[in-house]
TrEMBL record:
GO cellular component annotations of the record: efflux pump complex
Keywords: Signal
InterPro entries (UniProt xref): Beta-barrel_RND_2, BSH_CzcB-like, RND_pump_MFP
Annotated Pfam families: Beta-barrel_RND_2, BSH_CzcB
Name used for this protein in its record: Uncharacterized protein
Domain CusB-like beta-barrel: 221-293
Recorded superkingdom: Bacteria
Lineage: Bacteria, Pseudomonadati, Pseudomonadota, Alphaproteobacteria, Hyphomicrobiales
Signal peptide: 1-39
Length: 371
């Protein structure tokens, strides 16, 4: 005899084992971690940056120039009466290098002193006349017009004295110009006058200086850097300088200035380096070469497709804990298929390849091929 299930039996749910039901509940309640990939996250292709490798070097010709140099011209007309310095002499600031005999300036200075004395006498006379006239005007023995006239004469006399004093100071300065002094500590590198030579002061046609002075305890090493190497030259960078005169010896210099403009004729940028020369071993004007290092000390390389420009600045998209993170980077050399990154990335970062314009900072994503 076959038994059929009743209505209550046909509508009843089939019970699960207790262990299976508990496992399903735990899976449903378990939250996804912040770095876990989700099925609905878009997938992106990623790669790891490569180490930049050893730094390459390149050499450029340089010229060692004095840190400070000056051409000294005459400011007074006359003849060279004394020459107290010669080529190669070490001088201190304020030392007299030459004395110019300028009799015309001496006579004019004496005349200016006499003019000041005359002006003082006129001031004293005008002041006395003003006092007498003021006393008479107080007793109604002089008119107001006469008193005003005496005041005007006194003011004119005072102004004349000020003009005479200014002329005297001018000739005193010209007298000081008879002595040609060193403006700073240095070495006389050129001497173009002899005893008895006529010198003309303050003349545009006077193209030959009396002396040339240079300070060589610190040198400016000058190089013209081509455009292709500018990315490898940084302010504050230390470079190695060598000279044929000092075979086998290297000097250290620091990049101190860059002109910031490309010369149209040569297509290069002027770069200056500072080199200490306390013992004055390296003479000014010596030619040599400087060795620069290409790339940063700890740079990485990424595919060129990983670099994008946003807001006018180079950026690289990275994938970190399942989210897109855009970083500003400092670019180095362009190496064809790869781009050198000086700052902003490390070898442990996960770089997104070909980031499209729809990606935004903080977007969820997962690496292509990740489980």
């Amino acid at each position: 005899m076959t038994r059929t299930a009743g209505p209550a039996q046909r509508g009843a749910a089939v019970p699960f084992p207790r262990s299976t039901a508990l496992l399903a509940a735990l899976i449903a309640l378990a939250p996804l971690g912040s770095g876990a990939a989700r099925a609905e996250d878009p997938q992106v292709r990623t790669t790891k940056p490569e180490a930049g490798g050893p730094r390459e070097t390149f050499r450029l010709p340089v010229i060692a120039e004095p840190e400070t140099q000056a051409r000294l011209y005459a400011r007074a007309n006359g003849f060279v009466a004394e020459r107290r310095a010669d080529i190669g002499d070490a001088v201190k600031a304020g030392d007299v290098l030459a004395v110019i005999d300028a009799p015309e300036i001496v006579r004019n200075h004496e005349r200016a002193k006499a003019a000041v004395g005359q002006a003082d006498a006129r001031v004293a006379l005008a002041d006395a006349n003003l006092k007498r006239t003021a006393a008479l005007a107080g007793k109604d023995f002089a008119s107001e017009a006469a008193l005003d006239d005496r005041k005007a004469q006194s003011d004119v006399a005072v102004a004349d004295r000020e003009a005479a004093l200014a002329e005297l100071r001018r000739f005193e300065e010209l007298l000081a110009f008879r002595q040609v002094r060193a403006p700073f500590d240095g070495i006389v590198t050129a001497r173009n006058v002899e005893l008895g030579d006529l010198v003309v002061g303050d003349q545009a046609s006077n193209a030959t200086p009396m002396f040339e002075l240079a300070r060589t305890v610190r040198l400016r090493v000058v190089a013209d850097v081509p455009q292709s190497a500018l990315a490898s030259v940084r302010l504050g960078e230390t470079v190695t300088v060598t000279f044929d005169r000092f075979a086998g010896e290297a000097f250290s210099a620091t990049v101190s200035r860059m002109s910031g403009a490309i010369d149209r004729r040569s297509g290069t940028m002027r770069v200056e380096m500072t080199m200490e020369n306390q013992d004055a071993r390296v003479p000014a004007g010596l030619a040599g070469s400087a060795e620069f290092a290409r790339g940063a000390e700890r740079s990485v390389r990424v595919p060129t497709s990983a670099v994008t420009i946003r807001d006018g600045k180079p950026m690289v998209a990275t994938l970190r804990q399942g989210a897109i993170e855009f970083r500003y980077v400092e670019l180095g050399r362009h190496l064809g298929r790869t781009q050198e990154i000086r700052k902003g990335l490390s070898e442990t970062d996960e770089v997104v390849l070909n980031p499209n314009g729809m990606l935004r900072h903080g977007d969820r994503a997962s690496a292509a091929g990740a489980s």
